[in-house]
């Protein structure tokens, strides 16, 4: 069967770029060559910025034992040097293992393709954290003057997915670091973006870390903060104070405080005589256990 002619990598999805199932060399690569490690250089525009030293050491031990199973992919930048397109982690581990050479696919690549190829290769392997992906998307957009829709088509993602990643770059540096270190995930970050005030974002972020809040709990808290801000921005007309109004306001504030402390939609109701009911809902046994642990902490 006659093979189809090679098409440009740009404008193709992840499946076309990298294939499914077992990892394969990037389309258009030449036959494998054995290259001296000293002649291979890292890509300065590599989207991946964090390398786990412990995992690198584990991979290095594996390389000493059985060698490199999957070659890296490089482009030749002059007569005696090559730059990595994909496989920097393997290259770093090979250096740690003391290997002198590495098998590599040498691929003729246009400069504008390198960043995209490195990005989609890492996304396919789920090697990048959310901020690394966001920064890579932003760099491609700025370099090639792309719209979100155009970038989404190139990397094989939905437009909304690309936009959600780029919005992460609006978060304070402390929260971006939390994403980089995987202290919170994308769900937490999207909920935090609902809160416009930076100080409140950081407060809610610290609460997530302290109480190990679920994404759903953070969404509810962020919604409550947003509604509270809307009421302050558009206050209702002043009304004549009624008996016990101050007391009911105190209960409302107490209810909000309990919502934040317990990360649950607490309901506090009372009548004019001060008699009432406090309700703390939970979705499952784990949620109930978490609430009980909070009460035990308060007792001690």
From TrEMBL:
Keywords for the protein's UniProt record, in alphabetical order: Chromosome partition, DNA-binding
UniProt keyword Methyltransferase, yes or no: no
SMART domains tied to this protein: ParB
Single GO cellular component term: chromosome
Domain ParB-like N-terminal: 33-123
SUPFAM superfamilies in UniProt: KorB DNA-binding domain-like, ParB/Sulfiredoxin
Pfam families in alphabetical order: HTH_ParB (PF17762), ParB_C (PF23552), ParB_N (PF02195)
A GO MF term: DNA binding
A Gene Ontology BP annotation from the UniProt entry: chromosome segregation
NCBIfam families, per database record: parB_part
Similarity-based family: Belongs to the ParB family.
Protein name: ParB-like protein
Species of origin: Porphyromonas catoniae ATCC 51270
């Amino acid at each position: 069967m006659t093979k189809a002619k090679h098409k440009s990598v740009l404008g193709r999805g992840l499946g076309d770029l990298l294939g499914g199932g077992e990892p394969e060399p990037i389309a258009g690569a030449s036959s494998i060559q054995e290259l001296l490690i000293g002649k291979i250089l890292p890509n300065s525009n590599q989207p991946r910025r964090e390398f786990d030293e412990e995992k690198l050491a584990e991979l290095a031990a594996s390389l000493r034992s059985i060698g490199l199973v999957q070659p890296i992919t490089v482009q030749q930048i002059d007569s005696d040097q090559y730059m990595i397109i994909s496989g920097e982690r393997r290259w770093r581990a090979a250096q740690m293992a003391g290997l002198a050479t590495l098998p590599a696919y040498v691929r003729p690549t246009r400069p504008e393709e390198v960043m995209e190829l490195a990005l989609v290769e890492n996304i396919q392997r789920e090697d990048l954290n959310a901020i690394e992906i966001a920064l890579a998307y932003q760099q491609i957009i700025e370099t090639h003057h792309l719209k979100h829709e155009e970038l989404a088509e190139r990397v094989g993602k939905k437009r909304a997915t690309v936009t959600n990643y780029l919005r992460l770059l609006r978060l304070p540096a402390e929260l971006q670091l939390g994403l980089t270190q995987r202290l919170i995930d994308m769900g937490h970050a999207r909920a935090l973006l609902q809160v416009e005030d930076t100080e409140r974002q950081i407060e809610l972020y610290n609460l997530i870390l302290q109480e190990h809040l679920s994404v759903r709990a953070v969404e509810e808290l962020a919604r409550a903060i947003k509604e509270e801000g809307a009421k302050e921005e558009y206050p209702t007309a002043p009304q004549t104070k009624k008996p016990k109004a101050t007391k009911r306001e105190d209960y409302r504030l107490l209810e909000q405080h309990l919502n934040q402390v317990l990360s649950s939609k607490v309901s506090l109701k009372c009548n004019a005589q001060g008699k009432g009911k406090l309700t703390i809902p939970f979705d499952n046994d784990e949620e109930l256990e978490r609430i009980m642990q909070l009460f035990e902490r308060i007792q001690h």
